[in-house]
Amino acid sequence: MESKKEKTFKFVVVGGGIAGVTCVEQLSSQFASEDVALITAGPHIKAVTNYKQVSRRLEEFDVEEKPSNVLEEKYSNLTIIHSAVKSLRTHTHCVETADGRVFGYEKLCICSGARPKLLTQENPHVLGIRDTDSAQEFQKRLSKAKRIVVVGNGGIALELVYEVRRCEVIWAVKDKAIGNTFFDAGAAQFLIPSLEGDKEQAAAPCKRQRFTTEEPAPDAAQTFTADEYSRGQNPDPVESGSALGPDWHRGIELQGAEQASRRVSVEYQCEVEHIFTSEEFLDSSKQTPKPDSGSWPVYVQLTNGETFGCDFVVSATGVVPNTEPFLHGNNFLLADDGGLQVDDHMMTSEPDVYAAGDVCSACWEHSPLWQQMRLWTQARQMGWYAGRCMAADILSEPIDLDFCFELFSHVTKFFNYKVVLLGKFNAQGLGSNHELLVRCTKGQEYVKVVLSGGRMVGAVLIGETDLEETFENLILNQMDLTAYGEELLNPDIDIEDYFD
Ligand code: FAD
């Protein structure tokens, strides 16, 4: 492969999602006279726009899907290569792309993201949602559907169940409460009434990003149809586009073929036992369909003994890092979640190879107030920090772990409520060594504070609470709050003034 090298770049970044684009922007601007390459499978790149620092640690930004030449126009030293990386040879420092070209690198950063962990790969009735193509396929199938089964309890399932209209939704969650990845049972109780309300009102204004669903440029390489993708039949599963992010459903009608506006039933503490085609279901004498079950293209048997017929199943049970093309012949250490292990300089276990975003697993000793979650904000932060680490390495300069990894912070929207998550918001890893303070006003706000040893270590803020900045400071300061007790959440006290 060495002898075929078309060109050697100082820096090569793989992946045109938020992590890769942020990393390549950092490198292209800092090393304006060096050759930088971005190799990406999809025709578009993801660009961060309208970046806003909401508080010391909380950030908000829009994300736009753009044609990649926008980046090349901005950085004259940047070359964009539209092809998927097929293999990597770390000992000779080169990558081979699906179109047979070989490129050398001095430093490489892998930002190839992750793909949905599908319940089953081969079933045309099971969809995953990851990118614009798969979201469009979902919309198309939904428009003819009367009932769908959604499996999973993370952010995608939460948003989907809330947004779908005119189609019955059976929502299977493995936990005792909805949204377990983000909330505790109390917050789930606060949100549940939103699912019961009729969602016919006009959508509330939304300031976050929209996704273009324009056709790829005619010269764009390496695309596959949404149908192929949804059936897991794309020629190479890693050649997917970038992951969607917040508000992925904006601009696409998520409407089924039923009359009733919203009908959601939650099946708690269960997983999928088996998925049957309608023939298998009818043939199986063991199955006893409910009298009203009708005839459906697919049937889902849950571990709680219930079986539901539906038009299709949405598998929203997490993601698998896209590591496959990089592993063969190399010695990457992988984490339990399948991600490339990276240290506190975003370096993998292979020399000169870095990784950032959904593909990597942060394996340094974390700050007691931070944890990795495969989120938009962390993809940006990791991409940016990886670029700085690669630069520091080239320049032989020392670099400290960025302060964004000191405190977990995430701002998003669920069920149309603003949601802010800080630190160990779900008392992650604290065992019984913590206490909770909760304030809740039905339909308005839910505030939860996690205290450990009298110090605030985490918080969940749902609604327009205006508490994020003060709580962020209290968490970062680690001030002993024992003396304040429950007064901390007294709605009659202006807490901001209190701690000024
Ligand atoms: P990606 O955005 O997945 O980009 C990976 C890039 O690598 C793509 O350009 C792909 O084409 C390219 N690629 C892959 N393999 C190869 C290869 N072999 N060779 C070359 N290129 C390759 N996060 C939030 O913070 N808030 C949310 O509300 C939220 N909602 C979401 C909703 C949905 C439906 C989904 C799917 C995700 C959501 N996320 C959300 C998660 C968020 O989108 C991801 O964490 C983030 O996009 C990860 O960015 P990334 O750059 O690591 O990977």
Automatic annotation (TrEMBL):
Residues 413-478 form the NADH-rubredoxin oxidoreductase C-terminal domain. The keyword Nucleotidyltransferase does not apply. Residues 225-248 are annotated as: Disordered. It comes from the Eukaryota. The keyword Chaperone does not apply. It holds the Pfam family Pyr_redox_2. GO terms for molecular function: oxidoreductase activity. Keywords: FAD, Flavoprotein, Oxidoreductase. Residues 10-167, 299-383 form the FAD/NAD(P)-binding domain. Its cofactor is FAD. PANTHER family: PYRIDINE NUCLEOTIDE-DISULFIDE OXIDOREDUCTASE DOMAIN-CONTAINING (PTHR43429), PYRIDINE NUCLEOTIDE-DISULFIDE OXIDOREDUCTASE DOMAIN-CONTAINING PROTEIN 1 (PTHR43429:SF2). Belongs to the class-I pyridine nucleotide-disulfide oxidoreductase family. PYROXD1 subfamily. Probable FAD-dependent oxidoreductase; involved in the cellular oxidative stress response. Required for normal sarcomere structure and muscle fiber integrity. This is Pyridine nucleotide-disulfide oxidoreductase domain-containing protein 1.
